[in-house]
Write a structure and sequence with these properties.
By secondary structure, the chain is of the alpha+beta class. The protein is built from 16 helices and twelve strands.
Length: 535
């Protein structure tokens, strides 16, 4: 039974292709382009939502970060990096690996040897001891390249630091390094205080730290200048004056965040008396970025769903029109004795083939659009910006397109069979519009009445048009445009006026010690400020 039906359908397809190819091409392009945009949008939504997790995994992240501040006999910062302490931290239960960087008192030099300290408080200079920020918590290079860990005369910095210092990638910068005591001298910033060490270091790249992908304005500083492990080795060789008193540890734990509490307690007992410390975990950063990119992902997913619905509705109309154009041929086939299966297959053979080709084109379009994602703040540092194959979306999207449009085509072919059309014509009155009848009864002139009838009545057979679905589509399109513009305007109003979401201050000043009363009085003289202190 099936073989004769397919043989007749194949013969009819070849015989009528010259007349029907335009309709088939319309189906292929419609399904391929609009369906490809739908699958591409959903792929972009998934890629955007997971973008930071993918980026973070490529950085070989720490589970726990611990900056420590040493205290000298007079309360000033002193060198507190200890290889022995680092080994003891690595041997704590639950700790899998530890790396560190140290703070150095560094500043670019003027020709007379005086350090440029105008923005020193806004810049943090660090030297990686054993690869932190190079192989663990790897920074993302946004311009240039990463510094060679084995070269002491190369360094990188964040874009904020480069802006403050007025430096550019490829520039060789004379850098001076000072002891803690020198930074406290009255003459610092003049030629009278000369650095204990000078190097001509080349700025080879601008970088972004994983924790700085999404930042509030108050968290953008201090910016970072990063020197290599080779330079840190030279600094630690002169440990009596080389470092600035801060050591930053990155810890990778055996069981991730579940080990954080226990490691924090053990580390607190291990650190020397008088050491100040702080704990930071990766999980809150990941959650913060997730909240930022989620609205973009939801918007992309919603757009993809709307595009998918649109392609199903519009393709259904195109398929219906394509089948109706062959109604006279189907009547002839019926008169010649063709059974319902042959009649249905006559129109379906080419339509289903066009839907399949269109679905393959949609997959290609979705893959071609994938380099445009992810969107949002992670895009500049995303590790893979090439073609992406989201097989879940591509597979389900193809099934929805082929299955959905194919099912509509089968239902329409069944409905448009000549004997069923004739039966409906006998049983159902001619379709007219109630709105048309009311308008004509009001005495509308003949041209106006004809125009209203053409606009609102679907017609019959070859002249039939999908009036109701077209009107519904137009209404939905206008509603979507209005909703998008309204939402965009409201969002822009919200983000441009921080006071609307509780941010009713302009600047945050964070001090490690209590602000003296006289300083508060001086600030309050010209500004409206509020302060918080904690024990």
């Amino acid at each position: 039974m099936i073989r004769p039906v397919l043989r007749v359908a194949w013969y009819r397809f070849r015989a009528t292709l010259r007349h029907r190819w335009g309709g088939y091409l319309a189906v292929v392009l419609l399904v391929g382009l609009v369906g490809g945009v739908a699958m591409g949008s959903v792929t972009a939504a998934r890629r955007t939502q997971s973008s930071f997790s993918v980026f973070l995994a490529r950085t070989n992240p720490s589970d726990l970060s611990v900056p420590t501040f040493g205290a000298g006999a007079n309360g000033s910062a002193s060198v507190n990096y200890s290889a022995t302490l680092t080994k003891e931290i690595a041997n704590l239960p639950g700790v899998r690996h530890v790396e560190a960087w140290i703070n150095v008192n560094a500043a670019p030099l003027r020709p007379d040897g005086a350090p440029i300290i105008d923005h020193l408080a806004q810049i943090y200079s660090a030297a990686s001891v054993d690869g932190l920020y190079f192989n663990q918590d790897r920074v993302a290079v946004t311009q240039g390249r990463m510094a060679n860990p084995g070269r002491p005369d190369e360094f990188v910095m964040t874009a904020g630091a480069a802006h403050l210092l007025g430096l550019h990638v490829g520039e060789t910068v004379p850098y001076g390094f000072f002891t803690n005591e020198q930074t406290s001298l009255p003459g610092i910033g003049t030629p009278s205080v000369q650095p204990y060490r000078r190097i001509d270091a080349k700025l080879v790249g601008l970088v972004v730290l994983s924790g700085e992908v999404v930042q509030d304005q108050v968290d953008r500083f201090p910016a970072l200048v990063l020197f290599t492990p080779a330079f840190a080795k030279e600094v630690l060789a002169d440990s009596a004056r080389g470092a600035g008193g801060v050591t930053y540890y990155g810890l990778q734990l055996d069981h991730g965040s579940s080990d954080v509490a226990g490691v924090e307690r053990a580390l607190t007992r291990l650190l020397p008396r008088g050491t100040e410390y702080d704990f930071h975990t990766t999980a809150p950063v990941e959650a913060k970025v997730g909240q930022v990119v989620r609205p973009v992902a939801i918007a992309l997913g919603a757009f993809g769903a709307i595009a998918a619905l649109a392609v199903l509705l519009i393709a259904g109309q195109v398929v219906s029109r394509q089948l109706r154009t062959a109604s006279e041929d189907l009547t002839v086939l019926r008169a010649l004795g063709a059974d319902p299966a042959v009649i249905a297959a006559d129109g379906l053979f080419g339509v289903i083939g066009a839907v399949v080709l269109g679905s393959l084109l949609a997959v290609a379009v979705a893959v071609a659009l994938s380099p445009l994602s992810p969107l949002g703040p992670v895009r500049p540092v995303y590790p893979s910006s090439g073609l992406a194959f989201d097989w879940l979306v591509l597979g389900l999207g193809s099934v929805v397109l082929i299955g959905g449009i194919g099912s509509m085509a089968v239902a329409l072919a069944y409905r448009e069979a000549p004997h069923r059309v004739a039966r409906r014509s006998r049983l159902a009155p001619a379709r007219t519009s109630k709105v048309t009848r009311v308008i004509i009864s009001m005495g509308l002139p003949a041209p106006g009445a004809v125009g209203v009838r053409l606009a609102l009545e679907p017609g019959e057979r070859r002249s039939a048009v999908p009036v109701r679905s077209a009107l519904l589509g137009a209404v939905l399109a206008v509603a979507m445009v209005v909703a998008a513009l309204t939402f965009g305007s409201g969002l822009q109003t919200l983000i441009s006026r921080p006071a609307l979401y509780g941010w009713n201050w302009n600047y945050m000043l964070n001090a490690s010690n209590n602000v003296p009363p006289q300083a508060l009085a001086l600030l309050n003289r010209d500004h409206d400020i509020a302060a918080w202190t904690g024990a």
